[in-house]
Amino acid sequence: MTGRETAPRPLLNRRLAQFGTTIFAEMSALAARTGSINLGQGFPDTDGPEEVREAAVRALRDGRGNQYPPGPGVPELRTAVADHQRRFHGLDVDPDTEVLVTAGATEAVAAALLALVEPGDEVIALEPYYDSYAACIAMAGGVRVPVTLRPRDGSYHLDLDELRDAVTPRTRLLLLNTPHNPTGTVLGRDQLAAVAALAVERDLLVVTDEVYEHLVFEGEHLPLASFPGMRERTVTISSAGKTFAFTGWKVGWATGSRELVAAVRTAKQYLTFVSAGPFQYAVAEALRLPDAYFDGLRADLRRKRDLLADGLRAAGFGVYLPQGTYFVTADIRPLGATDGFAFCRTLPERAGVVAIPNAVFYDHQEAGAPFVRFAFCKKDDVLTEAADRLARMAP
Ligand SMILES: *Cc1c(COP(=O)(O)O)cnc(C)c1O
């Protein structure tokens, strides 16, 4: 008997202790309770192309993919991914050894970090960052090092000096996201070239999340893997969710050198092993849709972006017009508010609209505090109604 009471050990381990329920759950519950328009979570309110949906039904009926598909993904999809990388980006990848199909981009990011990060390694991520990054870095035992994108002249910018200063001898990996959620920043050729040069100089691995590769309204999306010296050090990740408006299917992929893909596959095979069998065949067909589909998607979302952005400006917000993705970041300070959390918690009552406080995507809370994120991947009449409600917002 020591006579000393010890506190009961917490159930959740130390790596995950800081990750409670996501803000999306809280805000979606609030949307339901108040009958609000939910522009918080980023999923489309209409499904993708009918022929792609039919392709999934056909695969399911024909008994393709109803049993465990091959671990790296069905050959039809791996080939379609390789062809897509060549068609849109001029990248050559071998469908047999350099493509890995995953349970969405989320699993690809998780598997890449679990495979490539040693406990104690530093991982640089652009802040604000997609919410799964912090948790996956933590699960891998890595140390998160945020580099903050800075708002200036109506858009967000990567400061290359800040990035360079963040690299230490312990840095193993850069986790990039372009087009960037939530800021809508699309890294340009010069910036990507500088990032690539830094990665080569400091011998860093790079994981790039390019799920919005087809949602670029200004400029163009360039994969980092296409820059000199990057092919052998870059894992490129994308997914069908955003490009084809089937976020529930969770079909994603990673491409890279044979060695990198083999490493990611080692982790992936013990996470889900495989997933989404019949949907893999449907996504293989989707990736071969004519250019008109991709052009139409972009034009459609550009119109929605402008519709919501105009509405937000009319309601008095400061607006950061995104170059890509389907999110607008809005500054609440012109409305006399400074705390995005408090603003988003009362917005459903005041206006019947739900947004997400950008601070949830930051370590440096103060950098994100006065900004909120609205999704515009919604029907035009929903966006118009949301804008009307915001313009009539109670003080
Ligand atoms: C939506 C999103 C994902 C998740 O993609 P899934 O294919 O649904 O797993 C990953 N990264 C970013 C930046 C996203 O916005």
UniProtKB/TrEMBL annotation:
Which residues does the UniProt record annotate as the domain Aminotransferase class I/classII large? 37-390
One Pfam match, given by its short name, reads: Aminotran_1_2
Mind telling me which SUPFAM superfamilies this protein's record contains?
A: PLP-dependent transferases (SSF53383)
Q: Which key words are in the record?
A: Aminotransferase, Pyridoxal phosphate, Transferase
Q: Tell me which domain of life the UniProt entry assigns to the organism this sequence originates from.
A: Bacteria
Cofactor dependence: pyridoxal 5'-phosphate
MF terms from GO for this chain are: transaminase activity
Q: Which CDD domains match?
A: AAT_like
Q: Provide the protein name.
A: Pyridoxal phosphate-dependent aminotransferase
- Species annotation: Streptomyces sanyensis
